[in-house]
Specification:
The chain is of the alpha+beta class. 37% of the residues lie in helices and 29% in strands. It is built from 7 helices and 12 strands. Strands 1-2-3-4-5-6-7-8-9-10-11-12 form a 12-stranded antiparallel barrel, surrounded by 5 helices. A hairpin with a 4-residue loop joins β3 and β4. α6 packs across α7. The longest helix has 25 residues. It starts with a helix and ends in a 9-residue tail after the last helix.
Length: 279
């Protein structure tokens, strides 16, 4: 009886503990600063850090380089003072910070990477992801590392389209579509902007945000994010995550090359055949 009583008590304690702790490990904290600004700018903090990262990646076989930092600022602050948020790029992920507080991490992938994975893994989950479309990024909880959201590309033809789904409730949070016109295509061809497209974000059929590449003349590539009053905090945060993904993929593609090479090396090591005579 005593053993049963102790076991029951431990079970009840564990349930109460999980009820209190689990939500903190499976839900992202709101970011109030996003509600205070309608327009934000994502830009690289120090271009020399990017150049050094590429140099160190080549010299040290992808093992050693300081993180490349991006600043998220109000569009009208002229770069004065501390940024609202910062994001640090590593070979494995992008980490978003508010001051020293870690808000979330973003794991980047590539459509071609999933083709490679399918050769080694024929599980139902991999097959399902291939049916739904390639997963370009996963937003993870800053402490538990649990996958919170997925950025899925649903069309690679022009115009490209994506959606972001919640991993907990499996509901679509927002849809994203690329746009372009002849004027932007001309500017891109002449090197005045780094991308011919801009991207709109919709939720339940209502446009709630827009992401535009900024001019690349006399300054480093950057992205401008603009929200409508209909965008709640979660949608603003997801828009920012997409903006960070596009910053790496489109504004600074050399970083995406580091991601691809790092993943390819890990796969080669993991799936390398054992040598003859090896134990």
């Amino acid at each position: 009886m005593r053993k049963s009583s102790v076991s029951a008590q431990l079970t009840r304690t564990a349930r109460r503990f999980s009820t209190v702790i689990a939500p903190q490990l499976t839900k992202l904290d709101p970011v109030p600063v996003l509600q205070k600004h309608q327009t934000l700018l994502i830009r690289i903090a120090d271009i020399s850090k990017l150049q050094e990262a590429i140099k160190q990646y080549v010299l040290h076989n992808g093992r050693l380089f300081d993180p490349v930092e991006f600043e998220i600022r109000a569009d009208d602050d002229a770069g004065v003072g501390l940024p609202l948020l910062t994001a640090q790029f590593y070979a494995e992920e992008i980490v978003l910070f508010e001051g020293t507080k870690r808000l979330l991490s973003i794991s980047l992938s590539d459509p071609s990477e999933q083709d490679i994975m399918q050769r080694f893994n024929t599980s139902a989950s991999v097959a399902k992801s291939m049916e739904d479309g390639p997963v370009l990024a996963k937003v993870r909880h800053p402490i538990s590392g649990i996958k919170m959201f997925e950025l899925i590309q649903i069309s690679q033809r022009r115009p490209e389209r994506w959606h972001i789904t919640g991993s907990m409730d499996e509901l679509s949070k927002c849809d994203i579509q690329a746009h372009s016109n002849i004027w932007r295509q001309v500017l891109s061809a002449c090197g005045f902007v780094f991308a011919a497209e801009w991207w709109s974000v919709q939720s339940e059929g209502v446009r709630i945000a827009q992401i535009c590449p900024q001019k690349a003349v006399c300054e480093e590539n950057s992205l401008r994010l603009e929200w409508s009053d209909f965008a709640n905090n979660e949608l603003r945060l997801l828009t920012l995550c997409f903006g960070l993904v596009q910053t790496v993929r489109e504004a600074f593609p050399s970083l995406m090359h580091i991601v691809k090479e790092h993943r390819q090396r890990k796969m080669n090591i993991h799936h390398a055949p054992q040598g003859v005579g090896s134990p």
